[in-house]
Specification:
The chain has 281 residues and is of the alpha+beta class. The chain contains 10 helices and 10 strands. The strands form 3 sheets. It has a 6-stranded antiparallel β-sheet with strand order 1-2-3-4-6-5. It has a two-stranded antiparallel sheet with strand order 7-8. Helix 3 runs antiparallel to helix 5, helix 4 packs parallel to helix 5 and helix 6 packs antiparallel against helix 7. The radius of gyration is 30 Å and the shape is elongated. The N and C termini lie far apart (114 Å).
Length: 281
């Protein structure tokens, strides 16, 4: 089987996935002597094609993405990505034999890969959801693109992708949870609460938490403390303000009803007499 675009011809070598909405193939350029391989996603479902084109139109920097080519072939819409032999993170990650710093570096590489992919968020979410995350031998992260587009959801946003990514980070950091590492505690709490809204926020949390203690300045420690405990601190502040507000309201009502504040009489009357002598004489 051959797929023809305006400038290239891709010859299919093998079928990687076959589904209702799309098929995925490994292919090579027909006249390429270097033998470079590509992953071809041939989308045949018309509704998915419409959604995919709609999602792609929202990207301003599509030329910076991993997408090599996009064209129509008969009734199919074809996407072409680089092909790499898969090394699934779920299979090749062995956290028990790694140092915490190595795991945090893998997490950073995953984040950077999500940011640099420059893919529509609905498609990026599928890569994360369907386990297309791969761990290179040097600790780098790369995506493969053998995905089922039947589950493509245009409502997926950067927030959804960030929360999904944060939960993957939480799972790999959990292998060092017994060390009470800051990155696991922070990312675990915020991912469980769906607190992340963008990759920049998640990246900042991971890098701050991964910094050695001796390198963190006094102000940065304070900032990190408030950032990690923001929910608790705001809860305490809320109850303090509520109690002070109630006290202020009681004082105001007392002044309106009695003309003064009864509790103050305790302090005033206490000093009118000392022993048997009256201070009023």
């Amino acid at each position: 089987m051959t797929f023809e675009s305006h400038n290239s011809s891709y010859t299919v070598v093998s079928t990687l996935f076959s589904g209702e909405a799309n098929c995925c193939y490994m292919a090579r350029l027909t006249d390429d002597m270097e033998g470079r391989s590509f992953t071809i996603i041939a989308v045949k479902d018309h509704d998915v094609i419409r959604d995919l084109m709609e999602a792609s139109s929202r990207i301003n920097n599509i030329t910076d993405s991993q997408l090599v080519d996009a064209f129509t072939h008969g009734n199919d819409y074809v996407l072409v990505f680089p092909y790499r032999q898969e090394r699934p993170l779920a299979r090749f990650f062995v956290g028990e034999s790694m140092a915490l710093s190595e795991i945090e570096e893998i997490g950073t590489n995953l984040l950077l890969s999500c940011i640099s992919a420059s893919l529509p968020y609905p498609m990026l979410y599928l890569l994360l959801e369907q386990g297309q995350i791969n761990l290179a031998k040097d600790g780098g992260i790369f995506f493969t693109y053998v995905i089922d587009l039947r589950d493509l959801d245009l409502k997926r946003t950067e927030r959804d992708c960030t929360v999904k990514c944060a939960r993957i980070l939480r799972d790999i950091l959990a292998t060092k949870a017994d060390q009470k590492n800051v990155s696991y505690e922070l990312i675990s709490r915020k991912s469980d609460n769906n607190s992340y809204s963008n990759f920049t926020e998640l990246y900042r949390d991971l890098r701050i938490a991964a910094m050695p203690v001796e390198r963190i300045g006094f102000l940065l420690r304070i900032k990190s403390f408030f950032h990690r405990n923001a929910d608790t601190l705001f809860g305490i502040l809320f109850w303090v303000c509520l109690i002070l507000g109630i006290i202020a309201l009681v004082v105001l009502l007392s002044h309106v009803v009695w003309g003064d504040i009864p509790i103050f009489r305790l302090f005033v009357n206490t000093f009118k007499n000392i022993g048997t002598e009256s201070l009023l004489q």
